[in-house]
Specification:
Blueprint lengths: L10 E3 L2 E3 L3 E3 L16 H12 L4 E8 L19 H11 L5 E7 L11 E2 L14 E2 L2 H20 L4 E6 L4 H6 L14 H4 L1 H14 L5 E8 L8 H14 L3 E6 L20 H8 L6 E3 L6 H9 L5 E3 L2 H5 L3 H7 L13 H8 L29 E5 L3 H12 L3 E5 L8 H5 L10 H12 L3 E3 L6 H7 L3 E4 L3 E3 L13 E4 H5 L8 E5 L3 H12 L3 E5 L11 H10 L5 E4 L2 E7 L2 E6 L2 E5 L4 E4 L3 E3 L4 H6 L4 E3 L9 H14 L1
Helix pairs in contact: 1-2, 3-6, 13-15, 13-21, 18-19
Length: about 650
C-alpha cells in the first residue's frame, strides 16, 4: 500500500514524466568537484543515494554558467565542454533508479565568494558576501545570456532530464529583477519590462540551444523580503510571461542575503513558511508549480498537494538528513525517517564558511562514496553503551546494525540526555527529534535500554561485555569569579532551571553568551522574568549557525532582556554584580538569581574502573569533550562502525 497518495502521484512536466511530486531542490553543497570544477565520485554517490531513496526529481545545486558566476569554490563548472564526460558519468549512475535528474543553472553575481564579481549595478550584497561588483556592460550581458544557453546545452548532452534557471535568492538574475539591486538606466533597468529582459533573453537562448522538447523550469522569488526588493505581485506578472514563453514549471522561493525572512530558515520558523507564495502563483498559471520552505514531513508535503497549494513539493534539508525519506514515507515507516532539526549548521553554515556541506542528523552526507554499505561484522561482540543521549544511542544503533549485541544503560529515567533540556526553550522542540529517532531505531533493532541504571562494576561483571562505549555527557562548569559563592542570590545552572530542579526568581543574571545562555534568556524572558545576560566572549552564540542565531537574536529584542558582551566580572554583590562591558563599568542591583550557562565539563566517572577491569573503552561525545551535536553524532557513528 502506498501512503500519501497525493505526494506519490505521478506528474507530467512538459515532455518529462516524474514518478512522484517530491523534488530535491538545488543546494550548494560545496563538495564533489575536482580542480577544474568537474564532478567527482563524491558528488555522484551523494545523488545516487537520494535517487535510490525514491525521490521523483533531483537538482544539482549551483551549476555555474560562467567563471564570474561561481558562487562557492567547490561547485560544478559548466562553462566548458570538457565538463560533459563527468556529467554523463553522473547521470548514467543515477538513471537506473528512476529519478528525473536536473541541473540548476546559476550565476552568483554580487553574492559570489571571489574578487571578480559582476552585477547589473556596482552595489555590494546586502549581507554575508563583501566587496563591490563590477557593472556588466551591454555586450557582457549578451555574452552572459549565451553562457546560460551553452551551459544548458552541455547539461542536455551530459544526459540530464531537465534544467532549472536560478532566478531567485539574490543571485545575478534576481539582481536584475529587483529594484534595490538594479539601478541601470538602459534597457535592462527601471520599469518591470526592462528588469525582466535579461531573464527572458537567457531563457530564449536556452530554448534555442536545447530544443522545444527539453524541459526548462525557472526558480523565482515570491518575495525578496527586503526593502525595494522583488515582491509577489511582480512574481505573478513574471510567472504569466514565463508560462507564455514556454517554461515547463515554476519553483517559488523567497529571500536574499540580508532579507528579514531567511531563504534557509531555522527551527524557529513555521514549516511550510513560503508555501503561500507558491499558492498565489499557482492560482494564475497552468504549468506545474513547486513549493518550498522548511517542508520536512511527508504529512505536510502530501497536504500541500492535496489542498492545491502546489503541484510539486521541494524538500531539501529533509533529504540531506534522510535520503530514503520518500521510500520510508511511501511505505508508512514514518518513525524510521531520520529528521532534519532545522539547526542550519551543516547544510548552510558550513557552506557559508566555505567548508563542505554536512548534516547534524546525518554524518554520511558527503561520505556516501566511502560508505556505500554498512558491512556486517565478522566477529559479533557484546557491547555496553553507557548513556542514552543522542551520541550513545547513535553509537548503539550503528553497532547493532553491524551485528553486535548491544545493551544501553542510563542512570536517568528517560532517554535523550541533554537533548531533552535543549528542546524545552521556545521554538527548540525539534532538538529532541534526533533522540526520538534513535530511540525508535534501537527498539526496531531490539537493543535493550535499561533506564535508572548507572554503569557499575557489578553491571559490567554481570554483563561481561567485550567493550564499553562511554557516552555519559556533560554538565555545566561553575566558574571561579570573586564573590560568586558568597552572594545572597540563588545560584543555579542552566540545566537546573530547564530540568525544574531550581526555580529562577523574577530578576536573573545569566553568565554565558553561548547557545545555552541565549536560549535560557529566551526561556526566562518569555515567562516574564527580567534577564541580564553577561557574555565574557566577543560574540554571542558562536557555536550556532548564523541562520539559527539570527532568529534567536530577534527573539531577544525584548524590553526585559539586556545583553552584554566582552564582559569582565569584577565581583558579585549580595544582590547584584559589578562588571565591565566594552570599556564601560556597569553595576546591576536588586537581582535574585544567578544562572550559570557557560562552559560544560565532561562526565566520565566510570572510566577509571572500566580501564582497571581491562575492558576496551571508547569515550565519545560530551563525555570525551563537550562539543556540538554534529561532531558528537559523527564520532558516535564512527565508533559504531569501527568497533
Amino acid at each position: 500500500m502506498t501512503h500519501f497518495k497525493h505526494l506519490f502521484a505521478s506528474l507530467r512536466i512538459g515532455s518529462m514524466h516524474a514518478k512522484n511530486r517530491l523534488l530535491m531542490p538545488a543546494m550548494s553543497i560545496n563538495f564533489g568537484v575536482d580542480d577544474h570544477g568537474y564532478v567527482t565520485e563524491q558528488l555522484i554517490e551523494y545523488f545516487v543515494a537520494r535517487a535510490k531513496g525514491g525521490v521523483g526529481m533531483m537538482l544539482v545545486g549551483g551549476g555555474a554558467v560562467h567563471p564570474t558566476g561561481l558562487e562557492l569554490p567547490q561547485l560544478p563548472a559548466l562553462w566548458d565542454d570538457r565538463c560533459i564526460p563527468a556529467l554523463q558519468k553522473m547521470t548514467e549512475a543515477v538513471r537506473p533508479f528512476g529519478a528525473k535528474f536536473g541541473m540548476q543553472l546559476m550565476h552568483g553575481g554580487r553574492q559570489s565568494y571571489h574578487d571578480n564579481k559582476v552585477a547589473p549595478s556596482p552595489l555590494p550584497a546586502e549581507a554575508v558576501v563583501k566587496g563591490i561588483p563590477r557593472e556588466l556592460t551591454l555586450s557582457e550581458i549578451d555574452a552572459m545570456a549565451e553562457a546560460f544557453g551553452d551551459a544548458a546545452r552541455r547539461c542536455q548532452q551530459g544526459g540530464f532530464d531537465f534544467v532549472e534557471i536560478h532566478a531567485a535568492h539574490g543571485y545575478l538574475i534576481n539582481q536584475f529583477l529587483a529594484k534595490n539591486s538594479n539601478k541601470r538606466e538602459d534597457q535592462y533597468g527601471g520599469p518591470f519590462e526592462n528588469r525582466i529582459r535579461f531573464l527572458l533573453q537567457l531563457f530564449r537562448d536556452i530554448k534555442d540551444k536545447t530544443g522545444a522538447g527539453f524541459p526548462v523550469g525557472v526558480r523565482i522569488n515570491g518575495n525578496d523580503y527586503i526593502k525595494n526588493g522583488w515582491n509577489i505581485d511582480e512574481a505573478v506578472r513574471l510567472a504569466l510571461i514565463l508560462e507564455k514563453e514556454g517554461a515547463d514549471y515554476l519553483h517559488i522561493s523567497a529571500g536574499v542575503y540580508g532579507s528579514s525572512e531567511l531563504t534557509i530558515p531555522s527551527m524557529y520558523v513555521k514549516p511550510g513558511c513560503f508555501v503561500h507564495l507558491a499558492e498565489t502563483v499557482k492560482k494564475e498559471v497552468s504549468v506545474p508549480v513547486a513549493a518550498v520552505g522548511r517542508i520536512k514531513s511527508p504529512e505536510l508535503a502530501d497536504r500541500i498537494i492535496k489542498d492545491g497549494q502546489a503541484d510539486i513539493v521541494a524538500m531539501g534539508r529533509a533529504l540531506l538528513a534522510d535520503p530514503a525519506l520518500p521510500d520510508k514515507a511511501r511505505k508508512g515507516d514514518l518513525t524510521r525517517i531520520r529528521p532534519c532539526i532545522g539547526c542550519c549548521l551543516g547544510c548552510i553554515h558550513n557552506v557559508l564558511q566555505l567548508e563542505p556541506g554536512a548534516c547534524v542528523a546525518n554524518p554520511e552526507v558527503g561520505r556516501e562514496y566511502l560508505l556505500k554499505e554498512d558491512a556486517k561484522t565478522n566477529i559479533p561482540r557484546k557491547i555496553i553503551v553507557a548513556g542514552a543521549g543522542p551520541a550513545g544511542m547513535a553509537a548503539a544503533r550503528m553497532a547493532a546494525i553491524r551485528g553486535h549485541k548491544v545493551t544501553v544503560c542510563d542512570e536517568k529515567g528517560a532517554t535523550g540526555g541533554l537533548a531533552q533540556l535543549a528542546a524545552i526553550p521556545p521554538g527548540r522542540s525539534e532538538n529532541m527529534d534526533i533522540a526520538e529517532f534513535m530511540k525508535n531505531e534501537l527498539e526496531r533493532l531490539k537493543v535493550e535500554i535499561h533506564l535508572n541504571t548507572p554503569l557499575t562494576r557489578e553491571l559490567i561483571r554481570t554483563q561481561a561485555p567485550d567493550a564499553v562505549i562511554l557516552a555519559t555527557g556533560s554538565l555545566p562548569e561553575m566558574p571561579i569569579i570573586k564573590g560568586l559563592f558568597q552572594t545572597q542570590m540563588e545560584l543555579c545552572t542552566v540545566t537546573d532551571i530547564l530540568a525544574s530542579q531550581s526555580v529562577a526568581g523574577d530578576k536573573v543574571i545569566i553568565i554565558g553568551g553561548n547557545q545555552a545562555g541565549m536560549v535560557l534568556a529566551d526561556f526566562l524572558a518569555e515567562k516574564g522574568k527580567d534577564v541580564a545576560l553577561l557574555n565574557r566572549k566577543r560574540h554571542f552564540g558562536e557555536e550556532m549557525s548564523a541562520n539559527d542565531r539570527f532568529y534567536l537574536r530577534e527573539r531577544l529584542k525584548r524590553d526585559n532582556v539586556r545583553l552584554y558582551k566582552k564582559v569582565t566580572v569584577k565581583k558579585f554583590l549580595p544582590y547584584g554584580v559589578i562588571f565591565r562591558s566594552q570599556g564601560e563599568e556597569i553595576q546591576l542591583d536588586n537581582y535574585d538569581t544567578v544562572a550559570i550557562a557557560e562552559k560544560m565539563t565532561s562526565i566520565r566517572k566510570p572510566a577509571e574502573f572500566i580501564k582497571a577491569m581491562g575492558i576496551p573503552l571508547h569515550i565519545i561525545g560530551d563525555a570525551k569533550s563537550p562539543r556540538i551535536l554534529m561532531h558528537a553524532l559523527s564520532e558516535a557513528e564512527e565508533i559504531g562502525r569501527s568497533i
